[in-house]
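Final report, Chapter 2: Outcomes

The project's central promise was a pipeline that accepts a single protein chain and returns its three-dimensional structure in a standardized token representation, suitable for archiving and comparison. That pipeline is now operational. To close this chapter, we reproduce one record exactly as it appears in the project archive, with the input sequence first and the structure output second.
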Amino acid sequence: MGESLCIEKTVNSEDCALTLKSGDLEVLSTPTVLAWMEEASANLARKFLTLDESTVGVHVELDHLAPAFVGDKVKIESVLKERGTKKFVFDITAKSGEKMLAKAKHVRVIVNRKRFAK
């Protein structure tokens, strides 16, 4: 596989654990880094879908390894490791410069937009 997609974000106060109440520090929150990882993976999966298909996340294994602070730039890279008829498996990293902030394995499944919305 090996197809990948990168997105870049800048940490702001709305992304921090203190604001999201997932902690009491002004650092990038785990829920935010997860959302960014899912965003990159969903965007990559979209390249392989028809117009009536979408994906939903069904599993994630996440290690949040280091802090990032307000103003830090974060690069999220999602790499497609496995593509089945109904699912995608991604390896994802989040880095600030050379510092590894987080890594994850993420699974998304393909759904029909109309049927899923009911």
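Archive annotation: The longest helix spans residues 30-46.
This record, like all others produced under the grant, will remain available to the consortium after the project formally closes.
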